Amino acid sequence: MFPVAPGEADRVQALHALKILDTAPEAHFDAICRTAAALFGAPVALVSLVSEDRQWFKARCGLGIDGTARDVAFCSYAILSQEAFVVEDATRDPRFRESPLVTEHGVRFYAGAPLILGPGLHVGSFCVMDVVPRTFRPEETRQLQDLAAVVVAQLRLHRAEQDLREREERLRLALRAGRMVAWERDLRTGHATRSDNAQELLGIGSGPISLILDRVHAEDRPHVERFSAYGGTLDAVEFRYRTPEGRQLWLCMRAEQTEPDRIVGITFDITDRKLSEARLWRAANHDPLTGLPNRALFQERFRDALAQAEETGARVGLILIDIDDFKDVNDTLGHDAGDALLTEMAVRLTEMARPGDTVARLGGDEFAVILAGSPRLEAAAVFAGNLLERLRQPFAYRGRPLATKASMGLACFPDHHRLPDELMKDADIALYRAKASGRNRVTLYAPEMRALTEKRVAVSGQMQEALLGGQIVPFYQPKVCLATGRIVGFEALARWLHPVEGVLAPGYFGSAFEDPELAHAIGSRIVARVAADMRAWRARGLDFGRVAVNVSSAEFHRPDLAEATLAALQAQDVPPTCLEIEVTETVFLGRGSDFVSGILRRFHESGVTLALDDFGTGYASLTHLKQFPVDHIKIDQSFVRGLEQDGDDAAIVAAVIGLGRALDTRVTAEGVESQGQVRRLRAMGCGFAQGYLYAKPMAGSRVPWLIGNWPAIAAGLAEEAQATAPPAPAPARAAG
Fold it and tell me: Which of 354, 351, 372 is nearest to 298 (CA)?
């Protein structure tokens, strides 16, 4: 059952009095829903009216049904409140978790503001829904209530228009109170007799038709002139009119020819309605923060520009723009700074745009520029470059300079694709390439980019199947103590046991880690398999040290990463001290370092060690060593590879080893392949090494064999080291 307020009968009576239930869709209600969906980033927005036993949607966006029973409706509760009613996660709310909106349509989040006609007269709600749980900020609550007030105004307007139509049907041309003029015109003389209030409303009295025609906007005049020479029933016409005092009005004229030489009609002021429609249209088609066209208006203008270019042979350029590190601005300086940055970007883009171009904000930190009548491809690229230079210039925010950078993707018609969706995809692919190549640059679309993108998408799909088929497994590479030659641990490396291609390394499927959900699935699978392998090795009494597992940046978006990993170990009865987590510096950079820090501290407190992988290839490493609980540094193999030939590489390796010694942190050199590298590393004081010299990554089933045979393997390596060692320098002979 649903809850009922004390004044239920009065509420239902007020709803029916609106005469709106089960009426046809109306554009202004639909526009409010689209506005809310865009404003709140929600897939569903509804104008819901709650009657005796059901809720009916006067307008809807993103939902394929026109109503539900009242006993499963969120809005049954929203109408009980004076303010917005919010359900952050419906699956956790016993009132709604069995609702078809949740079980069949995937609704997780709901926020609804009551539609209040008067005290106790809550006839419905204006609401937004999402398929993921979320919270609703106070400013969002206010915005939702403001939109609900607009809906109430439209409900009242609907009722007024209903009443008007009923009165027009009964009396046809009777005057109604308000700004309306009744008139009749003699077709033989052209003289129009107007009601007494014409002077007040229009600034003219009775007289020839030219009195009103001379004040009609030039673009609308032909439509009005046909009233002076039309036989039969006339449709309504809306037009702009300037009074003798200079005020511009919007008027609507309705007329009917009642006799062969006589027309009667009414003219009424629709200025307020037109202004309201203009405001709603602008709200539905423009970004409220920057005032730029939004995605809906952008798509309309983009289609129009391409259609015109097809007809005229012109060119059209499309630039997609993404602000680099925008989230960092919000996280470090606050959302006010982020809003200021977005507004400044909009101003700069608009200043640089040419007449006829369209600058739009597509959402978040993404903008677009349509270069209508674009010059040749090379010139469009130059324009984009100049645009980027302008965006790079810092601007002052609260007295401090704020640096700005952006990535851009450029595609052109007809040089690339001709259809709007395909050309949009071209520019988006180029933007993705710009960000993947280091950001802060313009990338021009090339056909081979699409092939790479399609391959990335295909690999992601194949990886989904590979996970289901149990084809993603860990391979293990030993870590060796340079002082004793003993195995001190292993690194678990993801491998794909492809049924056709054989064993594939992340070099083939690494793009899958860009998808957070897929990265989480791969990471969870690897951790589970590693935990199972460690349990088997422990059961055999093998001393395998710690096993390191690589964790991608995307996996740190999971707030329960540490808990899920530790639970996998616990399920196999493996202590946390057997595990090491390897991360690269990209994990620390930008996206919620406080969040990452909490996860790493949870690992550290449980006994899991943290290794910083590929050390030296990123930046701000010293800050990371100080800020995060790093137990282990791994020198990137690119420096180890040139250790014997490149003095700069040797200096970097020596510096990292010295840093590790000073911080009492373990240091492991990756990619060790020769005895010469081992000798240099030992001489520098490096503690541990890993690479093909010792073993290539192997299946978990081979690890027991490796550990059992390691004394013999280590002895062979020692003999090889002795055989390849350079001869000791001969002692100097005494002089004389």
Answer: 372
CATH number (domain holding residue 217) = 3.30.450.20
Regarding whether 207 and 65 lie in a shared domain, the answer is no
Q: Does 3 reside within a domain?
A: no
Q: Which residue has the tokens 């240099």?
A: 680
Tokens of 148: 């609900």
pLDDT class of 730 with cuts at 50, 70, 90: low
Query: Within this chain, do residues 250 and 101 fall inside the same structural domain, yes or no?
Result: no
pLDDT tens profile 83-108 = 999 999 999 999 999 899 999 999 99
Which amino acid, 154? Answer: Q
Selection from 425, 407, 408 nearest residue 416 by Cα:
425
Q: Alpha helix locations (H) across 419-515?
A: 420-436, 447-468, 506-509
| Residues 149 and 296 reside in one and the same domain | no
Beta bridge partners of 252: 238, 268
User: Are 625 and 534 in a shared domain?
Assistant: yes
Taking the CB of residue 372, how many other CB atoms lie within 10 A of it?
A: 22
Rounded mean pLDDT, 694-720:
93
The pTM of the full predicted model, rounded to 2 decimals, is 0.51
Range of the domain at 38: 8-169
Q: Tell whether 542 and 672 lie within a shared domain.
A: yes
Residue at 465 is within a domain = no
Residue 141 in any domain: the answer is yes
Instruction: Evaluate whether 190 touches 212 at the Cβ level (below 8 Å).
Output: no
Cα dihedral 95, 99, 103, 109 sign: negative
Amino acid symbol at 27: A
- Give one word for 145, left, alpha or beta, with left for phi > 0 and alpha for psi -120 to 50: alpha
SS3 539: helix
* DSSP class per residue in 282-350: HHHHB-TTT--B-HHHHHHHHHHHHHHHHHHT--EEEEEEEETTHHHHHHHH-HHHHHHHHHHHHHHHH
Pairing of strands 180-186, 262-269: antiparallel
Task: Compute how many other C-beta atoms are within 10 angstroms of the C-beta atom of residue 17.
Answer: 12
Q: In what order do the strands lie in the sheet with 237-242?
A: 207-208, 191-194, 180-186, 262-269, 248-259, 237-242
The share of the chain scoring above pLDDT 90, in percent, equals: 46
> Are residues 223 and 362 both part of a single domain?
no
Q: Is 675 helix (H, G, I), strand (E, B) or coil?
A: helix
User: Whose CA is closest to 274, among 28, 47, 26, 24?
Assistant: 28
Residues 174-194 pLDDT 10s: 444 557 888 888 888 888 888
Residues 257 and 393 in one domain: no
Does residue 124 lie in a domain region?
A: yes
Where residue 434 sits, what CATH number does that domain have?
Answer: 3.30.70.270
Specify the pLDDT at position 176.
41
